[in-house]
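Minutes, structural biology subgroup

Action item carried over from last meeting: produce the structure token record for Dihydrofolate reductase family protein (Paractinoplanes globisporus). EB confirmed the sequence was re-checked against the source entry. Recorded below for completeness.
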Amino acid sequence: MRTITATMFITLDGVVQGLGRPDEDTRGGFPYGGWGLRYNDEVMTRELGKGMARAGDLLFGRRTWEDFSKAWGNATDGNPYTALMNAATKYVVSRSLHDASAWQNSILLRGEAAERVAELKAQPGGDLAINGSASLVRSLHAAGLVDHLTLLIHPLTLGTGTRLFEGPAPLTEFDLTGSVTTTKGVVIAHYRRTR
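Output recorded by EB:
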């Protein structure tokens, strides 16, 4: 059976919204877009590179897939992440998306996320990696489908914004399997769901 690893950039108060750019996700009037950029360093780049090298197929919610397809889908910048992102098989889970042809190697999984991903997870194939897609991670976590979490815990609070676990989440225990602290104080913590 495939495993699912979710990688999330998160603040000390649990916010996961809009870390990359000011216009990334302004839902609810979120004013702090781009909060994560000043924390990037060589340690984070190296650790994320290790994760990308291990990743099999990618799994996205609709919003993140649309954003990533615009950013990576037509890029020809020589960045090794660009080549990995474009070559990978990408599954996008959505009830509203009608077509996934905007980004090469993308496959649309229509319907309820937990049901469709459980079916995908049971099929033979490479492990699945989620980058971002907080709503998808929440839904899959609630269904017991997330096997590993990598949290990039940033040393700041925002006080507002979408949090990783909003609303009820099931009691779930994780073992810490490793951690690294970057030069800018981001703790990259790797967790494995306790069975």
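Discussion: The two ends are 14 Å apart (CA to CA).
Next step: EB to file the record with the rest of the batch.
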